[in-house]
Design a protein that fits this description.
heterodimer, A: about 210 residues, Cell Cycle, Spindle Assembly Checkpoint Protein, Chain A, about 35% helix, about 35% strand, B: about 725 residues, mainly alpha, Copper Amine Oxidase, Chain A, domain 1, 10 helices
């Protein structure tokens, strides 16, 4: 929350972008932990959003997420980010198994006129907490990832965004005929984030 | 009841019994006072004694007596006559009186009934008035609802028009999309051709490069062998030269000794000078030889270096060979990718309006646009739907109201009809009654006319009655006319109700169609939402980015970096060795240096070309291997899937899964493990079937022939397939 103004209930564009990108960082960590992409021992517990959150200690993952969130924050401040997708793929076949969708709706008035909005920190934290809880509980219904998996982050941006040096254009890595579960959403009054997880249909279910 | 008694007809001066003849005679006749009292006691009853004071005192009594008697008898006769007549009259009168009373009673009864009928009529009129008011009110309401419904109808027609226009636009869109599709399919065809051509070219190139590489390899090997031979030769020469050198040195020492011994004799002997010259020449020769030997030695070192390099190259070659299985893996993955690609292509072909991958973004854009449009439309539609639903609810409730009203109206109509009938019945009854009364009255009148004129009162009464009857008739006529009007109104209302019912039905049908449309739109919304959730996006205003160094790539990069580091370490060590060598052998080192750098660039180039080739080989190999697999499948009747497995002790094993093309279920699979030249069959559900296990026992365990087993199995499966 880098540039939160003095009054607690006023929220600026930068502050909102920081909240959203930070949320994404924690959410990504939580997903990586809960979906077992990295070994349990490579995570440490920290307290965040009134919950014990797990953060990876793997340097490469850490730096990757840091870089991603930094870039996302930049785009969020410019109001150019439409969606963030955390894709979980099979390491062997590169088949996409899960897509964690974070759709972002930006209040264009705030971006254009630089006005601020009012929403209490507490309320936003409560909303984020609900999403985090849902992410943690998602393992109950998501199919088991019983092969080595890798993850990737896709950013759906506006067309006019200049592609940064470390980023390239990509295909959307869609899942054919996926199952979808909509999770809670949170709203900073500037950015509204809808969370949805879509995953590959388990063959066992179809039989 | 008014009982009228006739007034006394004649006032009598004396009270006289009606039957007394004198009294009767005194009525009309002149009385001779002197005679009668005398005559009476003689001839008549003792009652005549009462008229003593009327007795004639005159002497002429005897004279008149006969006359009088005659007259008296005649008068008595007349009296009797009159009496009888009077009695009959009296009788008649009493009869008439009784009749009159009866008529009066009847009249009064009729009056009462009339009054009752009036009351009833009034009540009926009131009721009718009320009903008419009700009907009017309802009619007004119906008209209002009709106008409402018309407005709604108008709205709905507008909506329909809009929907039709949207349908038309959608059709246009589809036509545009179809055109695009055609265009795209053409471009795909072209692309395919191009790719085919490229593949052909690549195949040719790969063949060429394979042959070239093999030739290069052979050449290199030849060169290496030559170099080895040369080095052996040179070694031998070097040994010889060393020997010569040592000899020469020895000789030189000897010569020097000799020289030192001969210096004293220098001046004296010219021979010795000559000898010295010879020796010097020889020395020079030896020195030249020594130089040559040195050169040889350096070349020998060079050869050593070359050998090392050769070894290195060999190592590299081995590594490359070791990489070959990886290449296979790559080819496998390539194949997989190709399959995927083909599936994608299939999918693309299945996607309407898309025929090559480049079209997908466009299509996505179009779809996204469509999605946005349709979401907008959906929003509109849902709003419309909501409106329609509200309208529908209102219409439904109205319909219900109207229906209940209609039912009510119908009931009322039935009731009023029955009432009308009742009234008509009553009317007919009343008219009948009236007619009867009239007849009675007429009769009465006739009777009265026969009677005396003292019946004026009753005449006036009758007139009154008649006038009231006329009024009644008038009333009845009025009622009839009003009834008629009411009937007309009723029929009109009935028709209106019918019309409204029809409209209601139409509305209901429309509502149903709208509901269907609503369902359709809802399903469309669901579809679009699912698409959106799926991750589709509009390429027109969105692009998807990802970070270049994803972790998977990172890991690979790490591994390659590690490998490169180790290689660097090795080369460093080599370089050190070379430098040492260089320092050991001065100018030869520089030679080697330049040679090495040249070689390195050459090798780098070679590596680059080899890498390129490797890429091509991969593609070619994938093609070839797929052909090979298909051919194997066709020729031997088994689909073969190869995959790597690790045993629990960590030893990697290759596993082959065979499935006959005549297999009747997916479970009919044979699994083999291949390890260092040995192939063993693995037990599974299929092989543990008694029939199959018997065959396994015979063919594999006893005869030790897997091909015989598979061939037998193929024949059996084929027979089962064809015979069954």
């Amino acid at each position: 929350m880098a540039s939160r103004t003095v009054t607690k209930d006023i929220i600026t564009l930068r502050g909102s972008a920081a909240i959203v990108s930070e949320f994404f960082g924690y959410a990504a960590n939580s997903i990586l932990y809960n979906r077992g992409l990295y070994p349990e021992e490579s995570f440490v517990k920290v307290k965040k959003y009134g919950l014990p959150m797990l953060l990876t200690q793997d340097e490469s993952v850490k730096s990757f997420i840091t870089n991603v969130t930094a870039q996302l924050s930049e785009w969020l401040e410019a109001g150019k980010l439409q969606r963030i997708v955390l894709v979980i793929m099979s390491k062997a076949t590169n088949e996409v198994l899960e897509r964690w969708n974070f759709s972002i709706e930006t209040d264009s008035e705030v971006v254009e006129k630089g006005v601020s909005r009012e929403k209490s920190d507490k309320e936003i934290m409560r909303e984020i907490q609900a999403i985090m809880r849902q992410i943690a509980s998602s393992i109950t219904y998501l199919p088991c990832l019983d092969e080595a998996c890798v993850f990737d982050v896709l950013a759906y941006t506006d067309k006019d965004v200049a592609v940064p040096f470390t980023w390239i254009e990509s295909d959307p890595k869609l899942i054919a005929n996926p199952q979808m579960v909509k999770l809670h959403s949170f709203d900073t009054k500037i950015h509204k984030v809808d969370t949805l997880v879509s995953y590959k249909n388990d063959e066992w279910d179809e039989q | 009841m008014i009982v009228r008694t006739p007034p006394p007809k004649r006032p009598r001066s004396e009270t006289m019994p009606p039957e007394s003849p004198s009294a009767a005679g005194s009525d009309r006749r002149m009385v001779i006072y002197e005679d009668s009292p005398l005559a009476a006691p003689l001839h008549e009853s003792p009652q005549q004694q009462h008229s003593d004071h009327l007795l004639c005192t005159y002497q002429c009594r005897q004279m008149v007596k006969s006359e009088f008697l005659d007259a008296l008898s005649s008068a008595e006769k007349q009296v009797c006559d009159y009496q009888s007549r009077f009695e009959t009259m009296n009788e008649n009168f009493s009869k008439v009186e009784a009749e009159r009373k009866k008529f009066l009673d009847q009249f009064l009864y009729a009056e009462q009934e009339l009054a009752a009928a009036k009351g009833r009529e009034q009540a009926l009129q009131e009721q009718l008035l009320k009903e008419v008011n009700d009907y009017q009110e309802r009619f007004r309401k119906q008209i209002q609802s009709q106008s409402d419904l018309e407005v709604k109808l108008h709205n709905e027609m507008n909506l329909r028009m809009k929907a039709e226009s949207s349908v038309a636009s959608a059709e246009e869109k589809t036509s545009v999309l179809e055109r695009k599709l055609n265009h795209i399919s053409e471009s795909i065809e072209r692309e395919k051709k191009r790719l085919h051509n490229e593949i052909e070219q690549l195949k040719r190139e790969s063949k060429l490069s394979v042959s070239r590489i093999s030739a290069d390899l052979e050449r290199m090997e030849c060169r290496a062998k030559n170099a080895e031979k040369e080095s052996d030769l040179l070694k031998e020469q070097l040994d010889n030269l060393k020997k010569q050198l040592t000899e020469c040195l020895h000789q030189k020492n000897e010569v020097e000794q000799k020289l030192s011994s001969f210096t004293f004799q220098e001046d004296s002997s010219t021979d010795s000078n000559i000898l010295v010259k010879h020796l010097q020449e020889e020395l020079r020769n030896y020195e030249a030889e020594v130089r040559e030997a040195r050169k040889l030695r350096s070349s020998h070192e060079n050869i050593e270096l070359l050998k090392e390099k050769l070894l290195e190259e060999k190592g590299r070659r081995e590594r490359a060979e070791a990489e070959l299985p990886k290449l296979q893996e790559f080819q496998m993955s390539m194949k997989k990718l190709e399959d995927e690609l083909s599936s994608w292509k299939l999918m693309i072909s299945e996607i309407p309006g898309v025929s090559c991958s480049e079209d997908i973004p466009v299509k996505f854009a179009a779809l996204q646009k469509e999605v946005i449009d349709s979401t907008m439309k959906v929003g509109d539609a849902s709003a419309r739907l909501k409106q329609l639903e509200v309208a529908l609810d209102a219409a439904l409730s109205e319909k219900q109201n109207a229906e209940t009203e209609a039912a009510l109206v119908k009931e009322k109509a039935a009731v009023s009809k029955s009432e009308v009938k009742r009234i008509e019945l009553m009317l007919s009854m009343v008219t009948e009654e009236r007619d009867k009364l009239r007849n009675l009255l007429n009769e009465f009148k006739r009777m009265k006319n026969d009677e005396a004129g003292d019946e004026v009162v009753s005449g006036t009464l009758v007139q009154e009655l008649e006038s009231s009857l006329a009024k009644k008739e008038f009333c009845i006529k009025e009622m009839e006319s009003s009834l008629h009007v009411q009937k007309e109104v009723n029929t009109r209302q009935y028709e209106e109700i019918k019309l409204l019912n029809e409209k209601l039905n139409n509305e209901a049908r429309k509502i149903k169609s709208l509901e269907r449309e609503g369902d359709r739109l809802r399903s469309e919304i669901a579809l679009l939402e699912s698409k959106l959730g799926h991750g589709d996006y509009s390429a027109a205003n969105t692009k998807v980015l990802r970070m270049v160094n994803t972790l998977a790539v990172d890991n690979d990069a790490k591994q390659t970096i590690e490998a490169l580091r180790t290689e660097l370490q090795k080369t460093k060590e080599k370089l050190q060795a070379v430098e040492e060598l260089k320092s050991q052998s001065g100018d030869a080192g520089t030679l080697v240096d330049s040679y090495i750098s040249g070689k390195i660039t050459q090798l780098k180039e070679q590596i680059a070309t080899l890498e390129k080739r490797e890429e091509r080989y991969k593609t070619v190999f994938a093609d070839r291997i797929s052909v090979f697999r298909r051919a194997c499948c066709e020729l031997f009747g088994f689909k073969i899937v190869m995959d790597e497995h690790q045993r629990s002790n960590g030893i990697p094993v290759t596993r082959f899964t065979l499935q006959s093309i005549y297999a009747q279920s997916d479970d009919e699979k044979l699994e083999f493990e291949y390890e260092s030249g040995n192939t063993t069959i693995l037990a599974n559900d299929y092989t543990s079937q008694p029939e199959i296990s018997r065959q396994v026992e015979i063919f594999i365990r006893k005869m030790n022939s897997i091909p015989a087993f598979t061939a037998n199995l193929t024949v059996e499966s084929f027979n089962r397939r064809t015979l069954s």
